[in-house]
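Below is a filled-in request sheet from our internal design queue. Each sheet records the structural input a requester submitted and the sequence that came back. We keep these sheets so that new team members can see what a complete request looks like end to end.

REQUESTER: design group, bay 2
PRIORITY: normal
MODE: inverse folding
CHAIN LENGTH: 379
BACKBONE (tokenized):
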């Protein structure tokens, strides 16, 4: 098989930081740039182009993912420069999937049309919730109508692959309100949904609110019920799970994410971006200024690296593959690990049918325990 290399392109800017988010992203106030992203766009894209020139030849590109931050803050003509450079250098596979993450507040029909015309063919909107007080708790800037408008514009602009990100389990969100969010998402012209349980990330504004007791996180059972409800409604609408937190119509899975989960090679561009090629992993300096300084001085922005041992690669493979419907081969586990897993099998958290065929795969209840099952396998 010919070698391929996926690209992740990080855009580390957001108009405002959402209280729960600890991604490597910066606001105009933090960067003292007075809110003008258009000027940042040109100079930042030039840095990305410089970094892409450092990538050795590595085969065609099957997927590209502009993530963030908020990639839609960049000028489409600047994003086109990256795509053109990557296409010229490496070539795209015929069915190359090119995704952009979008905050519903930062798009218009015109902008989405431009993004489609430069070759981007998949858009993923940060919807999070359809309930205004939940969006307020999450510290989001958009109102729910923006998502409806943005997804319809995306279709009008010619995107056939449209996804939304949802967050469940925010403080004060009832099961009925989560159902409203699910129903609203399913009424949109989309082909894919990612739904994540809210994680309290250390160091965020939200974590401080939880610590001070200003907001109270729901208990695990309530959050598990929300997952079950989501899975039931998504599957009834024809969106099937293909990773614990991801559902899609047939053929609309995100191939970029599948490449990560299958341990394929990918190259990250941008501050803090990680790369993985044949068992070697490395990451760039985190701050945009440090990243800019390095590249402007003709230096590689990589800050650290590690070479995974065969054993570490195997652990990583298990960790990711267990979250997929195909699961992992029982033969890849030791006798002791298999014995440990028998408890989960007896409790109905692993598929008995697959187990009898030599495969360890999660049932619906098992998906709720994915992290615990992985911890026990690796203990
Ligand atoms: C880079 S953002 C998506 C694009 C855009 N920045 C936006 O938020 O609209 C990636 C996604 O990660 C998820 N996310 C970020 N922090 C999270 C947290 N603490 N808990 C759960 N999900 C989180 C959100 O669903 C978010 O949409
Ligand atoms: S969730 Fe998205 S918009 Fe909010 S701070 Fe994180 S990256 Fe920015």
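RETURNED SEQUENCE:
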């Amino acid at each position: 098989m010919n070698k391929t290399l996926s690209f992740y392109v990080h855009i580390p800017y957001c108009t405002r930081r959402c209280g729960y988010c600890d991604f490597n992203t910066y606001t105009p106030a933090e960067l003292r740039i007075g809110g003008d992203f258009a000027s940042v766009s040109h100079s930042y894209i030039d840095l990305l182009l410089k970094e892409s020139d450092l990538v050795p030849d590595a085969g065609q590109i099957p997927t590209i993912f502009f993530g963030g931050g908020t990639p839609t803050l960049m000028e489409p003509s600047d994003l086109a420069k990256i795509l053109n450079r990557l296409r010229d250098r490496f070539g795209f596979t015929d069915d190359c999937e090119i995704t952009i993450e979008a905050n519903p507040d930062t798009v218009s029909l015109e902008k989405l049309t431009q993004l489609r015309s430069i070759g981007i063919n998949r858009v993923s909107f940060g919807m999070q919730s359809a309930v205004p007080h939940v969006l307020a708790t999450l510290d989001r800037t958009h109102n729910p109508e923006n998502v409806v408008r943005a997804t319809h514009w995306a279709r009008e602009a010619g995107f056939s692959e449209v996804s939304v990100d949802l967050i469940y389990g925010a403080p004060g969100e009832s099961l009925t309100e989560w159902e409203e969010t699910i129903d609203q998402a399913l009424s949109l012209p989309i082909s894919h949904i990612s739904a994540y349980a809210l994680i309290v990330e250390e160091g965020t504004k939200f974590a401080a609110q939880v610590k001070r007791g200003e907001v109270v996180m729901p208990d695990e059972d309530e959050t598990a019920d929300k997952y079950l409800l989501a899975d039931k409604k998504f599957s009834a609408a024809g969106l099937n799970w293909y990773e614990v937190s991801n559902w899609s119509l047939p053929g609309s899975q995100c191939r970029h994410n599948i490449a990560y989960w299958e341990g394929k090679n990918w190259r990250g561009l941008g501050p803090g971006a990680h790369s993985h090629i044949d068992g070697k992993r490395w990451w760039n300096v985190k701050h945009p200024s440090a990243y800019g300084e390095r590249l402007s001085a003709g230096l590689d922005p990589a800050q650290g690296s590690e070479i995974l041992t065969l054993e570490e690669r195997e652990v990583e493979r298990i960790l990711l593959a267990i979250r997929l419907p195909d699961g992992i081969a029982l033969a890849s586990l030791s006798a002791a690990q298999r014995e440990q897993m028998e408890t989960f099998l007896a409790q109905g958290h692993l598929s008995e049918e697959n187990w009898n065929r030599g495969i360890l795969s999660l049932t619906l209840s098992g998906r709720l325990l994915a992290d615990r099952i992985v911890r026990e396998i690796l203990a």
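SHEET NOTES:
- Residues 37-53 form the longest helix (17 residues).
- The mean pLDDT is 95.
FILED BY: M.R.
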